Amino acid sequence: MDVLNLLILAAEEFVFYYPLAMSIVWIVGALYFFYRRERRYGSTPPVLSHYPMVSVLIPAHNEQDAIQSTVESIMQVNYPNFEVIVIDDGSKDDTPLILEQLAEKYNILRVLILEKNMGKPSALRFGTLASRGEIMITIDADAYVEPEAITWMVSHFVSGPRVGAVTGNPRVRNRTSLLAKVQVGEYSSIIGMIKRTQRLLGKVLTVSGVIVAFRKEALYDVGLWDIDMITDDINITWKLEKRFWDIRYEPKAMCWILVPESLKGLWRQRLRWSQGGGEVIRRHIGIWTDWRYRRLWPVYTEYVVSVIWSYTYFILLVLWILGWFLPVPDTHFRFIPDWKGTLLVFLCIIQFGVSLFIDSHYEKGLFRQIFWVIWYPIVYWILTALATVWATPKALTRKMGEHATWVSPDRGLN
Q1: Can you list the domains of the chain with their CATH numbers?
Q2: Residue 83: enclosing H or E segment and its boundaries?
Q3: pTM for the whole thing?
Q4: In this structure, which of 81, 313, 367, 401 has its CB flanked by the most CB atoms within 10 Å?
């Protein structure tokens, strides 16, 4: 029993210190990135020496409620040389009909109609093969792209011949429910801060599939997207990293997206994210056998540790619940936080404050969301942990090689 109690005590310390340490790393990294790299470039996009042809790819599946506004928003961008390709991936609603009408209206829009659902990676492959651009920009079917976003992303490719991808800055535009408002803080304090910090370290774990630009040469170099991966963005990132292409984060390349506003939709999204991360870790475990990939080892390790944290948190949560009914080993874990939990929540608020301060340079009035984002620690620690525990075994055992089909996610339209 003494050994068991020691293990539980060690688990409690791990559950406390891991998010504490990572939060500090993200805060310091994001502030350094902002003051040394981000702020000095101002808000006006640079004038480029040339404007390479850009192909905007929009994969869609049953997106009749969102696709028209997305296409019309991309037509308003301030970039002189681009085309738009929408790939309808076997939609059963009116998406193909809407796209045909839009194609008649815009001469730079082309539409590819796939007869059956083959998955987002396959749709992106077909779109790339049909494209004419040197740069591929992929956006989700619910995204409103800022007019200067393309110029900001393309500027990295013009200045850096080894730049393989540039990930943009997705912002939440539906804020009519608590879940949506909480995710405003998540996209700033978790996704944005992590990408800023990872960019400093030289290895970005994943691009944001909702808005990302690729050099076509780099995509062909890595064999395009793998059709059997549940998440296209994280896997293509690792393929590019393993071929030593530079991946950058451009916070000024903003787009506005719809996030889930139901627990069911949010749960499905987090399951997909967790499963996709697990599949990538499984597929790319070979990096440990090659010294050239040593700069990827910390990123790989951090993800594995985060999975271990989720399982540890889940086990302690179960023990805490059982402790109300059965005699179980002593644990100091509390669902309602004691001083350790209070310290974590306090640091989380600081993290939110820093992230909202940084992103308020792009979105005025963002600090009004601080009241809502204080609920995020509960969503993050519980929902993310449960999704990871549930999805990881499937990710490690799923038969690979078949098309990873998809369904249209919860866009929060209701």
Answers
A1: 1-414 (3.90.550.10)
A2: strand 82-89
A3: 0.83
A4: 313
